[in-house]
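S.,

Sequence below, as promised.
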Amino acid sequence: MMRIVYHLGVHCTDEDRLVRCLLKNRAALAEQGIIVPSPTRYRKLLRDAATQLRGARASDDTASMILDQIVDDPGADRLILSWTSFMSFPAYVVSDRLYAQGGERLHGFTQIFPDAEAEFHMAIRNPASFLPDLRSRAESKGHGDILQGVDPRGLRWSDTIRAIKESNPGVPVTVWCDEDTPLIWTEVLQAIADHAADTRLEDDDELLAELMTETGFARYKTYCAEHPPQSVAQRRRIVTAFLEKFGRTDRLEAEAGAPGWSEALVEELTQSYLRDIDRIVRIPGVRLIEP
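The prediction came back faster than expected:
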């Protein structure tokens, strides 16, 4: 049975970095039955299909027809689909909760391929920086202030994830904090692709190249070539050391706060986010990737 992996983003986190990396390695992954199609082959197609089905189960013929447009090998074991707007477009993320319709929308997408097993994977981010960033992106698309009249204190990722689980019982959810991504990036790629442990992905350190100075990244590459990390923990220690010494502050530190927000509110949101992570860990069927 095919397993379909839905990488949900979320907005203002991944920037399609994950799918770019996997696409560069699509040939090696295909040898393991892992298919990574170009997003242009499925994003609009799946959106239109979900709209037409309105949550109903697709017929076998419909599912097969859509799958044939996405993959060249319908007998693949694992299909990876990545789109930050699976749960919502940016302008509609914020309401009484984050991605309020996310669970229902995801259910609709899974009904396009009802006989396939599904997995959801998503990053979360401190609302103190996520919400202002999301507002800026929505405004750049011509939308109004999506935070107007919204109390950010009431927006918790745990509510979003619980709603996803309620609408999609039995579908496992893997979560990680965007702030931790530099330290866990290879584990995130492994979780989504589920490739063999000895598979070496090309350009899997693109993120570190963005976060370090050019000189620092070159030294990091040289060091790892001369002293290959022998464990996940050792690799994280090496990455931490190089980021501390050569990290680009402007890219490592996300700007938090919005016009009209006090420092006290930013701190309150940050502390609430940290407590919310503990709630997420306790949700059945949810896995948290952490350093």
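The CA atoms of residues 158 and 285 lie 13 Å apart.

Coffee later?
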